[in-house]
Amino acid sequence: VLDSQYGLYAWPSAVVLAQYVWAHRQSMPGRRVLEIGAGVSLPGVVAARCGAQVTLSDSEELPRCLQSCRRSCLTNRLPHVPVIGLTWGRVSAELLSLASVDIILGSDVFFDPKDFEDILTTIYFLLEKNPHAQFWTTYQVRSADWSIEALLCKWNLRSIHVPLHSFGADKENLASSSLPGRHTIEMMIISLAQSEGT
């Protein structure tokens, strides 16, 4: 899969995150949701269909991915869902002008270790601006050597592991992949770490 094509494929992590959104569909109406690295936008589309106020985003440097977001919205009869260019680790007018959010979605954004800090920098900025928000993220375990624990600590973020069986996503037909190799999907919720004394 070519680098520029990552966002044009519905990865198994997106299916699992969409399942989590669906499992929490009763809480979606009126929630303000931002999907980062949206690509084909499956989790964001599910959130919008469940009544959330969704904004989809992908890198401003990947116009084909942004077009994919727009195409997903039109295909799912969601023509008014905004699609914006947000590049991880970059402060932009789009990032600064974002309305408040309750939930940030990101499926398989932790794909390339060189992007991990840029992603968490952007997440930290959004959570500082929206202290009660959460970042719901799923990812494929591709290497035991890749970890974001040190970066979570550096950016004063905490994570809670969410077992897939707790929302019916542990079935092989849900998160299976035609890609070679074994694909373990994990889910976590990232939020601001509480300061000492609070």
TrEMBL record:
It holds the Pfam family Methyltransf_16. One of its GO terms (cellular component) is nucleus. Gene3D superfamilies: Vaccinia Virus protein VP39. GO terms for biological process: methylation. It comes from the Eukaryota. InterPro entries: Methyltransf_16 (IPR019410), SAM-dependent_MTases_sf (IPR029063). One of its GO terms (molecular function) is methyltransferase activity. Keywords: Methyltransferase, S-adenosyl-L-methionine, Transferase. Belongs to the methyltransferase superfamily. METTL23 family. This is MET23 protein. It comes from Oxyruncus cristatus (sharpbill).
